[in-house]
Design a protein that fits this description.
With 151 residues, the protein is α/β, with parallel strands linked by helices. 30% of the residues lie in helices and 11% in strands. It contains five helices and four strands, in the order H-E-H-E-H-E-H-E-H.
């Protein structure tokens, strides 16, 4: 399998321009945090640029996807199918209308509810709090530029 990456924040991997990634990929899997910048990241234009017959997989955040555009891409056959465990339903689950489609595999977003995941998240929270107490920005902070507490 050849993996293509387009991430403006990562510098130490080979990058593929986003439009080329969409055009070349059999499977498109956006993995991003939910921010105003990523709102509707996958929209009508993005789906139109995807390789015809490709598959879309969203296991990241529901806000990344314009669901009307996803539905239109599925209806037109632009994309062959979708798998998702997140969506824009009030509980962040896949929207029931999309989940009911035969060309969509929808599951609940429950990976974070396993014992190993809960343990990891708990320890990570403690480690981040320890960094804050030490006057340092926690590793992985998505808003580090707003850090105010300095030693």
């Amino acid at each position: 399998m050849r993996v293509l990456i387009s991430d403006p924040y990562v510098k130490d991997v080979e990058q593929t321009p986003f439009d080329e990634l969409l055009k070349e990929s059999d499977y498109v899997v956006p993995l991003a945090v939910a921010t105003p910048e990523t709102e509707n990241f996958m929209n009508r234009s993005s789906f139109a640029k995807m390789k015809r017959g490709a598959f879309f997989i969203n296991v990241s955040r529901g806000n990344l996807v314009d669901e009307a555009a996803l539905e239109a891409a599925l209806d037109s056959g632009q994309i062959a199918g979708c798998a998702m465990d997140v969506g824009r339903a009030p509980d962040q689950m896949p929207t029931p209308r999309l989940a009911a489609r035969p060309d969509v595999i929808a599951t609940p977003h429950t990976a974070g509810l396993t014992v190993p995941a809960i343990e990891h998240q708990s320890l990570e929270t403690v480690a981040q709090a320890a960094e804050i107490v030490r006057g340092r920005v926690p590793k992985g902070a998505v808003n580090a530029e707003h850090w105010k507490r300095r030693p």
